[in-house]
Design brief:
The protein is mostly helical. The protein folds into two domains: 21-86, Helix Hairpins; 98-200, minor pseudopilin epsh fold (3-Layer(bab) Sandwich), CATH 3.55.40.20. The protein has helices at 21-43, 53-57, 65-86, 98-108, 111-124, 170-173, 177-184, 190-200, and strands at residues 129-135, 140-146, 157-163. A three-stranded antiparallel sheet has the order 2-1-3. A hairpin with a 4-residue loop joins strand 1 (129-135) and strand 2. It is globular and about 45 Å long. The protein binds manganese (III) ion. Manganese (III) ion (MN3) binds at residues 27, 31, 81, 163, 165, 167-168.
């Protein structure tokens, strides 16, 4: 089966006032749909057309040379946005509990220190990209990626990612990316992030 746009797991206005409904509608229905469509177009006729997106983007170098750029951008975009919707939610914010909370404190000192590192990486990402909390096989780390590159392309497992493309925040925050990043933590779904951590640790 070709790649498919997952339904948004909550209403378009569920993340207001942090993320406005119009941004969510455009971001999910138009931007994400375009990544899915363009990835399928690039993959059509290759042996990768029916593979899971994670397997595709972990093996970009095995794809035909003339497909690699389109797949990197669009299958990457599909993987990143599928995760993004999942790790946000209407009852978001607060603090992670259990082993994830402990691991964050052990690695970064405190949740606030983690947020500072993630936000700094997002602010410093020139142009478009993502800022991430990842598991690198041994523990937690903060990284940022350009464009639609995924940590999976570096053999890391993304646990939490914030889209810092202007389309993710411009209607509400205009050029104020730092304000968007600070506010974003009000919609983080720690339960979903914690489940991803449990699956990989
Ligand atoms: Mn986006």
């Amino acid at each position: 089966m070709p790649l498919q746009l997952p339904p948004l797991p909550y209403d378009y206005d569920a993340l207001e006032p942090t993320i406005d409904a119009e941004t969510m509608r455009l971001h999910h229905d138009k931007h994400h749909q375009a990544y899915v469509d363009n990835a399928n177009k690039a993959l059509e006729g290759t042996e990768w057309a029916d593979r899971p997106v994670e397997a595709i983007i972990a093996n970009i170098e095995l794809l035909p040379d003339d497909k690699q750029a389109a797949v990197r951008n669009n299958a990457g975009g599909h993987a990143n946005h599928s995760l993004f919707w999942e790790i946000m939610g209407p009852d978001g914010g607060g603090e992670p509990s259990g082993t994830l909370g402990d691991a964050i404190n052990d690695t970064f000192g405190s949740l606030d220190d983690l947020k500072t590192q993630v936000n700094d990486a997002g602010v410093k990402r020139f142009g478009s990209g993502w800022t991430w909390l990842i598991h690198d096989g041994t523990g937690l780390a903060v990284v940022s990626t350009p464009n639609q590159d995924s940590p999976i392309m570096n053999s890391d497992t993304p646990l939490l990612g914030i889209d810092v493309w202007e389309h993710a925040y411009y209607l509400t925050y205009q050029n104020r990316r730092p304000d968007y990043l600070s506010a974003w933590w009000n919609v983080v779904n720690w339960e979903a992030v914690g489940a991803r951590f449990e699956a990989v640790r």
